[in-house]
Structure formats: structure tokens, C-alpha cells
Specification:
This protein has 272 residues and is α/β, with parallel strands linked by helices. Helices cover 43% and strands 23% of the residues. The protein has a domain of 185 residues: Vaccinia Virus protein VP39 (Rossmann fold).
Length: 272
Amino acid sequence: MSAFASNIDPFDSFKAAQKLGWAHFAPLAEMTTPPAAQLVKHAHLRAGLRVLDVACGTGVVAITAARQGARVTGLDLTPALLERARENSRIAGVEVDWREGDVEQLPFENSSFDVVLSQFGHIFAPRPDVAAAEMLRVLKSGGTIAFSTWPPELFVGRMFTLTARYAPPPPPGVSPPTQWGDPQIITERLGGTVKDLVFNRGSMLVPTLSPQHFRETIERTAGPVIKMVESLSASDPAKLAAFRREYETLAAEYLEENIIRQDYLLTRATKI
């Protein structure tokens, strides 16, 4: 079991807020479904492998892996998303072991999985060193860790930076999720426990009628933005209006022919 499981978590209240915020994520699952297939392909998944999907959300990666014959466990912090994941796996006709849990305290024995995956999920753990250590702890020697993340210089990374400027500051010690989009930082975080580190790029193409439509969708579904909008709606409507103008200007840079392009980073490595 995890060495962290018996400790009192100083980020309990922060994670409780994350759990509530991400409960609204399900409508975004449609846009994250094609990237799920790209992540599974990038991981070189094979039938029969035991796979863990960390921060699985509505299950798009886990179900994609299960449809290819893998034995899959999907873990997420948010019960509402796991309910949707269970329904999705029922419809798809595949078996997935769905678990509620925290990437910083994975409820599995050492070396339990052949493959550990995460699509835009583990990046929200407040302590990346703890999250990385846990994901590698449950991975077998010779196993594959693979994940999708948002580079800080591209649209979603810039969106997170913009939101952080307007949002209440996180507790001390919380690392920005966009750091997981920097290959140099990823290399440092995975450290000497991996070999054959490979990076690739993918694109998520999101239909929308206007920057305003896209902003409203994100305000209803993305945990950090939901939290920020709730705070400013009550405390500073003028500041919220300024955020919305900046967000729409940013979105317009990436909008062409009713498609917003969201490029992301794919990482794969082998545990030594």
C-alpha cells in the first residue's frame, strides 16, 4: 500500500473543492474521446495487459483500453464522474474496475500494473512529486507510463495561466498543472526511474460557434474556471467581466472555421 495513505493530507480541503468542481466535467467528454484513442495508441497497449487509468473522469481512456482487450482499472477523485464512467462502460459492453481514489494515495500494491495512463488528469494533483512517485510505484519494472498534458505556451496552458491570474490563490505548495506540459520538467519529475522517454504531439479539435460559446461551455464544465467564476460573481463582477473579455480574445486566436484547436503533449516512458 502507499506510504502516503496513513498520513493526514494537508490538501484535504483543496481536493474537496476539486472534487466538487470537476463534478460538472462530463459534457467535455465528447471532445476528449478522440485524444483518448491517441493516448492508448501512444502507449503501445496490447490485449491482456493490466492497465490503470489515473484521474479517469468519464472513462474515455479506460473504456478505449478495455475495448482493445486490456484488463483496466479506472480511478478518479469525483464520484459523479465515476457514475458516468460506469454507465459508459455498460453501454460499451466492457468490464472496467472503477475506483474512487486520489493519485497522491493510490490504493494499490507496488508493481500492480503493466501500464499507467492519465489524460489531462494527474496534472491537477497539488504535489507533482507525490503523484509521479505513486504512479511509478504501482507500475511494474519494464512497464509503461504514458500521459497527455497541456503545454504552457499553447491555448489550454495559456487559459490556465489566465484563470490563475483572476482566481483566488491556491494553498502554498500547489504546483501549476501547466508544468506537466514542459518536457524538461517531465524529464526531471520522472527522473532516473524511467528510460526510453518519448514525446509526441496531438491536437484536439473542438467545434464551437464563437469564442463566447466556448467560454460559456468552459465556465459550466472546467473545475478551476467554475471555482473562479463563482468567486468573482459574488465579490467582483467587474473583474469577472474583464476575465471574460480576455478569455474570448485568447480563444479567438485559436478559432478557425468553427473549430478551436487545442494542441497537447504526449509522453511515454518505460520504468526501469
